[in-house]
């Protein structure tokens, strides 16, 4: 690449786009300060508050605390707070999180165009396909990976720490589908307050760590695990980029949805509350036809993609600009790192040393984030139903079920054709 192909010290946007869409970025990457002049980064808190309407507008926030139990969404509380109250939250015992908000649902539509992703090569993406995350010090998202697509995250205000782990470490992270949420596979490890036994199990895991600053953009590759925690009052925005492999994963999620729907149709309300994330409660009303339609749609979509030779696999489903996809225009990952000092790989870290050096940010008098087993409160063991769902929902098992499912569908189709 020559100097004419530079774009403000970064690769030109279409190079970044091609690297992402062709899955040539296989590790997380930080584009340092690429959004330093992003319009939302320049806004003050009063301006941000105006996005939600009048000052009296109340926003529904999750509340959580330091706990030996993971703060799943159902275990957290809810508070309706004004924007001013959120910005000035000062509790040392409780955090608040206005998280995973589709921007079309929560802000005035006139501001959506300001959240555009053109510098990363996606000028067609803006606030309508982005999500808002606002949290106080210590607020976090439990460790998980997203089954669909890849992720671009722009840090707008404050600092957020990301711990990331590659897909090959999945078995060590104890994946769970309970609580069930479509497209999210969670870890049973409490990264906010891990036990010594957790640390022993994870001692050899290969992780990466970064603290994002305002103006930074993080690229998270497909299926990378991540635990995300605010280090101070933090505002960030993300957008998920559709990838060709999503069709296969959607079929896998369709199968998992059918499995979970079958269980919640026969379990008590207490057990169902354990099985489902609150945003999946509509599954309680799902009919046989709903599940059949979901499976049929995801199956046909996957098969059409697989066998349609005219499918353009290099572009997202909703595209507006046609960019070069010739091999000559694609930079390798190594070249990206070597030629651009503002494009940074993440540093590996040792989990035990990390927790010894990083005290819990919000609770005073508790500088040891590693909890002794003697401090562990009695917890309810997973039921056989939960263990069965986790066995069926393990990523490797879902893959095998999907293969057999497709073989059955194909055989049925062949038999039906032969009988005509």
Structure description:
The protein is an alpha+beta fold and 420 residues long. It has 13 helices and 18 strands. The strands form 3 sheets. Strands 5-4-6-7-16-9-14-3-17 form a 9-stranded antiparallel beta sheet. Strands 11-12-8-15-10-13-18 form a 7-stranded antiparallel beta sheet. Strands 1-2 form a two-stranded antiparallel sheet. A hairpin with a 2-residue loop joins β1 (6-7) and β2. α7 packs antiparallel against α9 and α7 (246-264) packs antiparallel against α12 (384-393). The longest helix has 24 residues, at 395-418. Residues 1-6, 309-330, 361-367 and 374-378 have low confidence and may be disordered.
In short:
This protein is of the alpha+beta class and 420 residues long. It is 30% helix and 23% strand.
Q: What is the straight-line distance between the termini? A: 58 Å
Characterize the biggest β-sheet: 9 strands, antiparallel
Average pLDDT for all residues: 86
The proportion of strand residues reads: 15-25%
Write down how many β-strands occur, each being a DSSP E stretch of 2 or more residues. 18
Q: Given the helix and strand composition, which structural class is it?
A: alpha+beta
Question: Residue share in helices?
Answer: 25-40%
Tally of helical segments: 13
| Strand line-up of the largest beta sheet | 5-4-6-7-16-9-14-3-17
**Could you tell me the radius of gyration in angstroms?**
22 Å
* Poorly predicted sequence stretches spanning 5 or more consecutive residues: 1-6, 309-330, 361-367, 374-378
| Global morphology | globular
């Amino acid at each position: 690449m020559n100097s004419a192909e530079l774009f403000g010290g970064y690769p030109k946007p279409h190079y970044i786009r091609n690297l992402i869409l062709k899955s040539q970025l296989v590790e997380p990457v930080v584009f340092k300060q690429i959004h330093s002049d992003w319009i939302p980064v320049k806004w003050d808190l009063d301006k941000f508050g105006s996005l939600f309407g009048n000052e009296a507008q109340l926003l529904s926030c999750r509340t959580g605390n330091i706990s030996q139990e993971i703060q799943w969404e159902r275990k957290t509380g809810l508070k309706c707070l004004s924007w001013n109250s959120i910005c000035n939250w000062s509790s040392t015992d409780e955090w608040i999180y206005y998280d995973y908000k589709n921007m079309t649902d929560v802000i005035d539509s006139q501001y959506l165009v300001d959240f555009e992703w053109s510098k990363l090569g996606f000028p067609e993406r803006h606030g309508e396909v982005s999500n808002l995350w606002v949290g106080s010090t210590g607020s976090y998202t439990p460790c998980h990976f997203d089954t669909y697509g890849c992720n671009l995250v722009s840090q707008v205000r404050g600092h957020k720490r990301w711990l990331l782990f590659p897909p090959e470490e999945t078995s060590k992270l104890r994946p769970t589908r309970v609580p069930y949420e479509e497209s999210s596979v969670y870890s049973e490890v409490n990264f906010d307050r891990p036990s010594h036994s957790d640390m022993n199990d994870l001692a050899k895991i290969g992780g990466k760590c970064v603290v994002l600053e305002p103006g930074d953009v993080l690229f998270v590759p497909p299926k990378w695990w991540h635990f995300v925690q605010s280090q101070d009052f933090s505002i960030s925005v993300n957008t998920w980029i559709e990838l060709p492999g999503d069709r296969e994963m959607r079929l896998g999620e369709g199968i998992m949805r059918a499995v979970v729907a079958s269980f919640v149709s026969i379990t008590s309300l207490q057990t169902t509350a354990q099985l489902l994330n609150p945003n999946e409660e509509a599954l309680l009303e799902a009919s046989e036809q709903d599940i059949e339609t979901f499976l049929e749609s995801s199956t046909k979509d996957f098969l059409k993609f697989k066998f349609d030779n005219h499918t353009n696999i290099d572009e997202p489903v909703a595209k507006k600009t046609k960019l070069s996809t010739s091999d000559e225009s694609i930079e390798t990952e190594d070249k990206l790192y070597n030629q651009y000092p503002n494009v940074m790989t993440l540093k590996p870290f040792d989990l035990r040393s990390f927790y010894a050096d990083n005290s819990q940010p919000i609770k005073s008098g508790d500088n040891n984030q590693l909890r002794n087993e003697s401090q562990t409160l009695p917890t309810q063991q997973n039921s056989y139903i939960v263990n069965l769902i986790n066995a069926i929902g393990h990523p490797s098992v879902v893959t095998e079920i999907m293969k057999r499912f497709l073989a059955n569908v194909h055989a049925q189709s062949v038999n039906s054709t032969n009988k005509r």
